[in-house]
Predict the structure.
Amino acid sequence: MFLNDDEKRILDGRQGEIAQRCMKFLVAYGEAAGAEKLVDLDGTVDLHPTGSGWVAAYAVTREEMTELAGKGERFKVPTFSDKATAPNFIVDGWENCGVLPSSDPAFHKKCLEDLQPLIDMGCVLTLSCAHYLDSSYWPSLGQHCAWVESSAVPWANAVLGARSNFDGCFHTAYLGKVPYYDMHLTENRAATVLIHCEAELKRDMDYDLFGWAVGETLGLKVPAFVGIGRPTTTQLVKMNSALNTGGQVRMYHIPGMTPEAPTLEAAFQGKKPKETISITRDDLKRAYELMNYGSSDDIDFVYLGCPHYNIEEVRKVADLLEGKKCNTRLWIMTNPGTYPLAVLAGYRKKIEDAGALLLSGSCPGLLRGIVMPPDGYPRVVAMDAAKQDYYMTGHCHPNKVQIRYGTTEDCIDAAITGKWKGEWR
Amino acid sequence: MNMPTNKIILRGRKVIGGIAQGEALVSKMPLMGWGNVDSRNGYTVERNHPLYEVRPL
């Protein structure tokens, strides 16, 4: 891989051993990815806050970050944090969650202390998989970024028109550089597959299922969607997260809507589609049946908030719960930036009055399935998100957890009655 | 165990160097890398996967 003189100096250790280690990581990763050079970031970084690196040989410790911060070293571009990856760390609402170690004040304090070096180096602790929506700072069109997390990366590429592979981490934020390959190059961003949606997408769940069905079909290919209507922001978030969990879709176009596709021709950069695929209502039904991994209708846990609920979703469930009483444990997860707004508007009170809990910054996946007091697994979970649904069974392994999947309304009804009544309609 | 009848050479690029040897578990379906992995047992716990809980002999 080509390195300029500055980059070579860092690799030679002239900027210290930690910078050298970070550069060695970028070179190893860049060469494995087939990158010809590095590119300077001019956008933003999104990183998992406790992740010191994916490859042990290049890991940077908390003590080393503290040392760098003490010397006045800062991240090179605006840097935001994804979910709190410290296991069992819940940012807001932890006091009443009833689960250990999440509800232990000493544990909570330790988790916050561990994040201090990142704060000192300039990372904004947004602590959410969906911080891009409510409490962050957007890169502009065409800017080079380093993001991470399955729903965030396609959001950066497709919805914002920024350019990111899956490589937001300490190393890329500290050096302000990433390997120049894949999504950083214009030609790789062109659609190659035309997706005709023949099913009418109306409910939020329809977009979730559509995203899953397309993702499974496409793998890494870049699609352009025709016939999906005009999704709301909530629907876009759902589709976006399912696309990159059901498959590996890190870029897509909605002609007439997303910034790199003013027209269908622009989405394909003037070339002809290599494939055309139709998605029908049967495909959505198949995805729905895959998500409904369970036979029992007796729900003992209901989870809403994957990706972390935005303020509009929190408002909607607060309204649905007003004057009701839950018979089953219900958690609603938002992001830490949205949480105070939900308190201010009285949504948290409505939720708590119904016997449910509003929390922020984590999810059952990150809690490794530990959501039942004092430190146990649920048996049958209701939820409205394909992404969490598909991860949850693995996170609870080898404990067998059943999942009932449906609309937000189906889930609220299950929380109130304790019974699952959702079905494909 | 069946003896291999043919040899396939796969070429790739490394992040960490080294040599490893073992029986290949092959599937047409991609594997998740973040969730649904049981790293202690070395198999996928992705419930829809043909290699669910399958480990090499």
Chain B touches chain A through 15 residues (CB under 8 Å). DSSP finds no helices and two strands in chain B.
